[in-house]
TrEMBL record:
This is L-fuculose-phosphate aldolase. InterPro entries: Aldolase_class_II_sugar_metab, Aldolase_II/adducin_N, Aldolase_II/adducin_N_sf. Its EC number is 4.1.2.17. Residues 38-211 form the Class II aldolase/adducin N-terminal domain. It comes from Streptomyces paradoxus.
Length: 243
């Protein structure tokens, strides 16, 4: 996929420093946005290193105040620099940078407009995507589904980057912090980027687990009940270190 950089002639964003005629000038990044951008780029690079995406697939965003920093569309993550900071308002208007924001902006903004999320991670993780083609809900193969709010739903297929996909995703996310997108991938959110990322990793791991167990000939995996999951949900509130 071609890169879209504002400093290259012939690209959409070379028009007018990335602005449509009549749009206000974009502002400079604030120090907290610059720091958040560094973390965002590191997380995006990690999705490739961890095998959750290939090439420029997937996208990551973080909310800083009323601004949503997002990975730009079709730019390899290892080429992103501090100067590439890309940000939009909750209304989708670009306020930072000249690179074209991710094509999945409708999904990211839909999450921020309807939840208290501060980070969203979208991947094409292979086991999760495989599961999205087989079931409408990930069977309760492991209690870590509780960390995502319950059984993980699969959002019906819609073309990437569309409002329809964002609407399907929102329905699948009700009461959950992650879902699968049919024939597409994963979406998770969290109150921190680390939490959103960890939820993606857990989701991919659970999908891999289910595919592994379900593929043993002559055996059907045992599944957990909703009651068992609720018990874990309560227990997880005290999980880890206190203070
Ligand atoms: C065609 C894209 O890969 C699309 O599938 C999208 O979902 C994606 O993962 C990456 O798009 P961007 O580079 O626009 O963030």
């Amino acid at each position: 996929m071609a890169e879209q950089r504002g400093d290259e002639p012939g690209t959409a964003d070379a028009r007018e420093g990335g602005r449509d005629a009549g749009e206000p000038r974009r502002r400079s990044a604030r120090p907290e946005e610059t720091r958040a951008w560094e973390d965002l780029v590191a997380a995006a690079r990690r999705t490739v290193a961890d095998g959750l995406v290939v090439g420029t697939s997937g996208n990551v965003s973080v909310r800083v105040g009323e601004t949503v920093l997002v990975t730009p569309s079709g730019v390899p993550y290892d080429r992103l620099t501090p100067d590439d900071v890309t940000g939009v308002g909750l209304d989708g208007r670009q306020v930072l940078g000249t690179l074209v924001p991710t094509s999945e902006l409708p999904m990211h903004l839909a999450v921020y407009r309807t939840t208290d999320a501060r980070a969203v991670v979208h991947t094409h993780a292979v086991h999760a995507t495989a599961v999205s083609t087989l079931v409408s809900e990930l069977p309760l193969i492991h209690y870590m589904a509780a960390a995502l709010g319950g059984p993980v739903r699969v959002a019906p297929y819609a073309t990437y980057g569309t409002d329809e996909l964002a609407e399907n995703m929102l329905r699948a996310l009700v009461g959950r912090s992650g879902c699968l997108l049919r024939n597409h991938g994963t979406v998770t959110h969290g109150t921190t980027l680390a939490q959103a990322y960890d939820r993606t990793a857990q989701l991919e791991w659970m999908c891999r687990l289910w595919l592994t167990a379900a593929s043993v000939p002559g055996h059907a995996p045992s599944l957990l009940s909703r009651e068992q999951l609720t018990e874990v949900e309560e227990r997880l509130r005290d999980y880890g270190q206190r203070g």
